[in-house]
């Protein structure tokens, strides 16, 4: 067993005892206390989100439904790239530019392994909450921060909406249709939604591979051009039913299901310009698969008194991912490779959470809660190569199962000390155990992390506009399951930039101590400005390292050293009328982040954390006049080199995205939305390099970008 906690046991006991004593004392005061508003759960925000953000003792950015839907994005992943302080790299959503350190939650819960935001429709989302500092209620596995996606819950009246969308570009076609319906009676309310998506996408990539000897002479040079077409169909279903009772109690069922099927074909041509001839110069690839996710939750809210309530939620979920991949290669019309690759992964699990909260007078909101989950994960990967003359084969049959148990308990107290000063105190104790079985290899990985948390809000005297926030946190990141499994996956053409891969069951969680300081200023009409500085010091850092074992290169994760992260965030949004009363109805927003990081044991410069952009920015404006409205958004994420070890270097080109939309309201219940995405036709360019005393390998890859358009008809009924 590996203990990830460095806090002495006596200190933990003292802290827990102190919080427990405070909760008991508060309980004694309940009978004599005046009722307090319900303790902070996930607050339903209507209209201006600044009201909740301004007075919450916990630092939180709220993105409302109008902002989520205005560009008519086909997936929630497209929405994320326009949020303040957020960058999107492929399918990775990042706060502070840190992908694996950013926690994504759905209704306050971690989604199953393999879940991606590109499968979630924006229509199903009520709001998005961005927590730059950790809270005890949510798992503290968000070192960079937490993004909580809250699905639609509130139903005020009977309503329905239908949307039909068509999107296209030089490389893509995307069509979708969605239907949503909600209704309400005295005791019951419900909402259901369904969405079908069809997409046909073409990708074109160009790579250059170069190998040098110690004398900088090029020994191998290859030009690689790839073409791939992928067609997919997806269906998303979601529903929620609420039963209300006279005493304020509520029973809620909530469920959603996502399913998709896809198939693709590709062609890769490799030309050897210098050096040894590549054994697979003409390749065709074929892929097909299907994915599905199903989740059901049952939630019970019980009011024990005017100031005490109990919330419990239990859930069952299941996921499955299947892939069939075929690869055939020819060398001068002779078959040189015929490969079949099949993977089948499935997970089944259950969750149970609870929260006991009480209001103490008008000053305290105290809560105790638990969060537990149990899941089984199974995966099998099979690779079979046909036996061909003078050709080797890389056959393997890797299968493994995993049992994952998690248990966490927490205490938190939101204390309004004075009208101008509020304090949030919390602590969370979380244990995680992963048992893996990979045929003849078994391993157990355990971790235990204790997280004390403090956040405070101070409204500066003399005005109602200025306020300061301070947060001191302890967070962590547990290794992903795939990184713990000790099975080995073989590359057909083994080099330092295309190595074999294996997990490491000895990995320990990464731990982080955090400090955040924020200044905020608010005006009328939703105008605000925020400046935030933060620091994270990470220990037990997990890095992927390439080693030469016998005669093959292998990539394996390791705990290697520490890292420090420093970030400066600036955010502002305001209507022009707040500055110039006669200005047109234009709402503006701007955010920018400057990121610094360094990794011990890796020589500088550029020894930053993996794929972290040094800086990013986001600027947008929206305008409404009569039946017309529109807007534009420009986002930028810097690139540059990142050294991951003494021998490895990765680099990427800066990304620039310009999106725009126009909406015409034809009738009170019907409108037409037109949007343009990637107006600048930005593609991606990356560099992977390995250098030692014997040789140097590098791969440069470029993926073309295209302008895409989308038209969407929206009808309410």
Write down the CATH class: Mainly Beta
- Shape from CA axes? globular
CATH topology descriptor: Maltoporin, Chain A
Write the CATH homologous superfamily. TonB-dependent receptor, beta-barrel domain
Q: With helices defined by DSSP (H or I, 4 residues minimum), what is the helix count?
A: 5
Q: Report the span from N to C terminus.
A: 58 Å
DSSP helix fraction: under 10%
Q: Please mark out the parts with pLDDT under 50 across 5 or more consecutive residues, or reply none.
A: 1-47
CATH architecture: Beta Barrel
Largest sheet composition: 22 strands, antiparallel, barrel
Compute the gyration radius: what is it?
Answer: 27 Å
As a percent range, the share of strand residues is over 45%
- Oligomeric state of this protein: single chain
Indicate the structural class: mainly beta
Number of strands: 36
Please explain how this structure is put together.
By secondary structure, the protein is mainly beta. The protein has one domain: TonB-dependent receptor, beta-barrel domain (Maltoporin, Chain A, Beta Barrel), CATH 2.40.170.20. 6% of the residues lie in helices and 62% in strands. The protein has 5 helices and 36 strands. β7 and β8 (172-184) form a beta hairpin.
Could you give a short description of this structure?
With 717 residues, the protein is mainly beta. The chain has one domain (9-716): Beta Barrel (Maltoporin, Chain A).
Write the layout of secondary structure elements.
Layout: H1 9-29, H2 50-55, E1 61-63, H3 65-69, H4 76-80, E2 86-89, E3 92-95, E4 102-106, E5 125-131, E6 145-151, E7 159-169, E8 172-184, E9 188-212, E10 218-244, E11 250-274, E12 282-303, E13 308-331, E14 334-360, E15 364-385, E16 396-418, E17 421-438, E18 441-459, E19 466-477, H5 481-484, E20 488-489, E21 500-502, E22 510-522, E23 528-539, E24 542-549, E25 552-559, E26 563-575, E27 586-599, E28 615-625, E29 628-637, E30 640-643, E31 648-652, E32 655-667, E33 670-677, E34 684-691, E35 696-703, E36 708-716
Parallel strand pairs: 4-6, 21-25
Antiparallel strand pairs: 1-5, 2-3, 5-6, 7-8, 7-36, 8-9, 9-10, 9-35, 10-11, 11-12, 12-13, 13-14, 14-15, 15-16, 16-17, 17-18, 18-19, 19-22, 20-21, 22-23, 23-26, 24-25, 26-27, 27-28, 28-29, 29-32, 30-31, 31-34, 32-33, 33-36, 34-35
